[in-house]
Amino acid sequence: MNIFSKIAAGLKKTKDSMMGKLESLMNSFTKIDEEFFEELEELLITCDIGVETSLDICGELRKKVKEKGITDPAQIKTELKEIITEMLGEDKGIDTSAKPAVILVIGVNGAGKTTTIGKLAARYKNEGKSVLVAAADTFRAAAIEQLEVWTERAGVDIVKHAEGSDPASVVFDAVTAAKARGTDVLICDTAGRLHNKKNLMDELKKISRIVHQQAEGCSLETLLVLDSTTGQNAVNQAKLFSEAAEITGIVLTKLDGTAKGGIIISIHRELGIPVKLVGVGEKLDDLQDFHARDFADALFETETDFEYNYERLTDGEEEDIPEEIAEENETISEAEETVPEAEEEPAAEVTENAEAGEEVQEKKDLKNGKFGFLFKEISFGKKKKENADTEE
Prior knowledge:
There is one protein chain. This protein is of the alpha/beta class. The protein is about 55% helix and about 10% strand. It contains 17 helices and eight strands. It has helices at about 5-10, 10-30, 35-45, 50-70, 75-90, 115-125, 145-155, 165-180, 200-215, 230-245, 265-270, 290-300, 305-310, 325-340, 345-350, 355-370, 370-390, and strands at about 100-105, 130-135, 155-160, 185-190, 220-225, 250-255, 275-280, 285-290. Strands 3-2-4-1-5-6-7-8 form an eight-stranded mixed beta sheet, sandwiched between helices. A hairpin with a 7-residue loop joins strand 7 and strand 8 (about 285-290). Helix 16 packs across helix 17 (about 370-390).
């Protein structure tokens, strides 16, 4: 499965929900008027795109409708796709240009921080980079052990202290070790915290200060991991976390398990923070770089889910059949069609039976349809067997 297919599969629930409502709306109106725009605004809000962002989208859509003289609601989908793509802006990946590239991973418990760190470590390791992980989540029971499992799986080193240690000291030691070893990438785990707990947020500020001081001149990333299933609450988390740390990117997890993927648009529009990674499954390679154009294409895609299955069943596959067999099959098929019904013993027995007659017609339909080659091949084999019996 290629990257676009993974994104498309991960967005299926969001797409089915949003596009289903949009199709219904467009079919309910014969012209574009103010009532249409009001309904569209409500639709976008219910798809977790957010009030402010939904109003902005409709505002841009009004301008385009007026400029282009659009009157048919069916043409709205193309314009919406372009507006959303423009809102998401340019794609921004994780900066690992200056080593050690330090990636600070923050977020609430349960959002998928540990899994994200494990997948990132495996990715960079597979790219040939040296990776070090800092286990600075010293408060949650078994957090260090869980991270150790991921680092062993990825084949990378880990810096850890005893449970209950000062998280900032773990980060300090990890940055020092990464610089001494010439490590390419340092990924720092942090304690999962509630965004409304002031003391924990203050500690996050302390960790952020240490990273900026000790890793000066290095590539720095602060990634906020958000659970997409929480919808607009994820946007509120991002606003509060941005007060404690300078967030450079969002990792949106569990996108494949929710119909609330529209929050990607509101996060970027309302906060100006780019979504850099999206989680679309449980496998190691299911943590994908976010691309705005792929997101929009997958969201508005209308092709059938069975496209590839149908490709495998096209009549073009007959080209692979040896010419001698293909010609012989055609000859036998033509011969069968010219033989009078009276000479075909099975046909003679069922001509008076309506049910059997339907069965014969069904076989003819199959022979002339998509599966014609399969039917001819079976007929060919059957004919050879009959000839062999006659000769005996």
